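Translate structure to sequence.
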């Protein structure tokens, strides 16, 4: 850090060279960062914001990869045993679109104190571990949903697709509030209002499209109260299990 001509070599050699607006032109040219006010607290604020951003990027990557892996595994398993497509192509695209919309609020989300206490590293092995564990947990409850729909309610193709779509939307979106933090959900920082709005809004939109008057346009059909109750129970059990699986998926959780 410096502002004179003689400081320029050291500023240039440093990993992060810092100067100020009133410095010599040589010093400012060598610097990576130029402070517009004589206040070093802006550096600490920048570091915290960078760590918060990185933590939220990790949230998005973990959620996206685990969800996609779980859906792919469930689709592959269902395709082996079912005489019809588990979901129609339009329904798959709708599922992905709604899930992506629910994650729009992640960049604004709050992070836990330990996420900004020290720098994090990009750990591909950790992301892979998280994706496999959480994806397999998701597929396990998808399989339970398949058995309940086929064996208990003797669902036909349209009823099966509607039931699985609703269960998938419920579990994928609500689990955001479970795995957004290393901590237990009730001990984590409160989710940002934007994340709550995008997640709940996307969930309500998905349920409206699958169960509302427009369901026929997407190949869905009406669900009985018994099926809805069973799906809600499965989703609740999944959220409890996901919270336990999170401790295996993130060893330091």
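Result:
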């Amino acid at each position: 850090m410096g502002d004179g001509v003689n400081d320029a070599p050291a500023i240039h050699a440093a990993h992060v060279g810092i100067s100020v607006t009133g410095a010599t032109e040589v010093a400012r040219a060598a610097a990576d960062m130029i402070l517009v006010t004589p206040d070093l607290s802006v550096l600490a604020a920048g570091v915290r914001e960078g760590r918060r951003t990185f933590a939220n990027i990790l949230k998005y990557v973990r959620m996206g990869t685990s969800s996609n892996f779980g859906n792919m595994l469930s689709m592959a398993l269902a395709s082996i045993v079912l005489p019809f497509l588990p979901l129609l192509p339009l329904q798959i695209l709708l599922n992905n679109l709604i899930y992506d919309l629910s994650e729009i609020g992640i960049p604004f989300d709050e992070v836990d104190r330990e996420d900004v206490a020290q720098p994090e590293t990009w750990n591909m092995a950790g992301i892979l571990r998280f994706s496999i564990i959480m994806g397999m947990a998701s597929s396990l409850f998808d399989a339970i949903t398949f058995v309940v729909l086929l064996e208990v309610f003797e669902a036909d193709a349209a009823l099966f697709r509607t039931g699985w779509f609703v269960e998938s939307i419920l579990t994928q979106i609500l689990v955001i509030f479970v795995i957004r933090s290393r901590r237990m959900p009730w001990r984590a920082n409160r989710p940002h209002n934007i994340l709550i709005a995008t997640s709940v809004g996307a969930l309500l939109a998905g349920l409206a499209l699958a169960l509302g008057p427009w369901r026929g346009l997407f190949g869905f059909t009406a669900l009985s109260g018994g099926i809805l109750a069973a799906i809600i129970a499965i989703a609740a059990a999944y959220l409890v299990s996901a919270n336990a699986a999170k401790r295996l998926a993130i060893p330091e959780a």
